[in-house]
Amino acid sequence: MTPSLPPAAGPTHDLAVEVRCGSRLRHAVACVPSGAPPAAGWPVVIAFHGGRSHPEAMRRFCGLDAAAAAGSALVVYPAGTGSREGVLTWNGGNCCGEALEEQSDDVGFVRALLGRLADLLPVDPARIHATGMSNGAMMAYRAGAELADTIASIAPVAGPLALASIAPARPVPVLHFHGSLDQFTPLEGGVGRRSVTRTHHRGVVDGLREWARHNGLDPLPVTTPVPCADEGITIERVAWGGPGEAEVVLYRIDGGGHTWPGMTPDSFYLGTATRSFEANPLILDFFRRHPRPA
User: Fold this and answer.
1) CA 248, CA 153: separation in Å to the nearest integer?
2) Digitized pLDDT (tens) for each residue of the chain, 294 residues in all
3) Residue 1 counted as domain residue
């Protein structure tokens, strides 16, 4: 039975969620639409924060609370692990920080978190999706690869596939955004000039090609230009597969940095962000078009 929640004055209200995962008590905050849920329950968007960050910073960084305010989805911001408050990371594969060093069971945490959410709120089990920034993008990839029985589709931003290999239980659609001038997780791979962890990252396209292969897609992508009004920035859409398939899509932002398209970064060190080209409408539409098959 779903517990009753106190009435909310605004379009959303927050719900703190705690789950036990091994010896750790893990945390998340859910931004919940205040209106009545759809008959099937709320679609869920899990938004993983970047490395050395925390959920509240991710909320400001990505702007996805607007999706909950519009009644489109329940947006969940999980907290990674770390010995310093607010300086948290995810075990995304070959990165990052304490989460990697301690082999934090972040996949187990996500599964437990989703189970707890289903106990607390009406959620649509066919519409659970994941996104994330940087190290959080790596975690979104890992969740898609290892929780394909639960995660319908993923939309990583500015962070590559950090697993040496993948074997998802079913084809999982992927939407990826990456800037060509990203100095933290370079588009072409390697060690970013501003990297804190000095991780040697996999090239973004290399990881997407592997994902497309597992999804059974044509290995040759279709590339189309995308209009962009920002001076000094051009955008290409590179797509493996298409409508009706478990498509894999990259928005390559030439001139863009380690940023969330459409949002102002919280530090100039992250580089240039597009203003006229917004990731969030594309992410939400992609999620809407890709529920988990029955």
Assistant:
1) 10
2) 333 344 445 899 999 999 999 999 999 999 999 999 999 999 999 999 999 999 999 999 999 999 999 999 999 999 999 999 899 999 999 999 999 999 999 999 999 999 999 999 999 999 999 999 999 999 999 999 999 999 999 999 999 999 999 999 999 999 999 999 999 999 999 999 999 999 999 999 999 999 999 999 999 999 999 999 999 999 999 999 998 999 999 999 999 999 999 999 989 999 999 999 999 999 999 999 999 998
3) no
Is 4 inside any structural domain?
Answer: no
Q: Which helix (H) or strand (E) holds 205?
A: helix 204-214
Total number of domains constituting the chain = 1
- 0.90 exceeded by the pTM? yes
Structural domain boundaries enclosing 246: 12-289
Cβ atoms 48, 136 nearer than 8 A: yes
| Residue 166 placed within a domain | yes
Residue 203 resides in a domain: yes
Residues whose CB falls within 8 Å of the CB of residue 183, separated by 6 or more in sequence, listed in order: 192, 193, 194, 195, 257, 258, 271
CA distances from 51 to 5, 39, 88 (A): 32, 36, 6
CATH assignment of the domain containing 58: 3.40.50.1820
